[in-house]
Amino acid sequence: MFGELRSKGSGDLALIVRSAPKVSTQLGRVSSGLKSERGQALVEFAFMMPLLLLFILLVVDFGIALDRREIIQHAVREGARRGAVGDGVAAVQDITHRQSKGTLNESDINVCYVDKNGDGNFGDAGDNVRVSGNYSYKFTVSIFGLGAPNIGMTPSAEERLESAVFSAPAC
Fold first, then answer.
1. Domain spans of the chain?
2. The pTM of the whole model exceeds 0.85
3. Pairing verdict, β 150-153 and 135-138
């Protein structure tokens, strides 16, 4: 069986060898066409790189905004815990400011009390203390010269008072 293929294939081999110069010249034309497109990838990369870099910077900037939000949320939660054990408004604002690592100013921190038992007195044991902070994050990356957008953040936390607080502001 293999002998028959060999004898039949020997004539085909001569045909392949004779057509080989045509194949090599056609491959030469194809490869010479590729030589004229040598810098195409570099040009495409040069066009796409600024957009890719802008996208990466926006993702990083948004991640920083989320980190600031988490820091502020932690700070107001700690302030509400301090307020729940009976600390005054100034002490709650101070601890919230320190826990926010300077992100929140004391003027941006609001401390108020919610009358849960309905007796009209704010700051009694059993009422709630609510601490909130106002912060606006400004993106550092501007999109196509339109200016950097802002994200307003107002996290708040509420805890139940364990002891009465005097001169408590109402919410």
1. 41-160
2. no
3. antiparallel
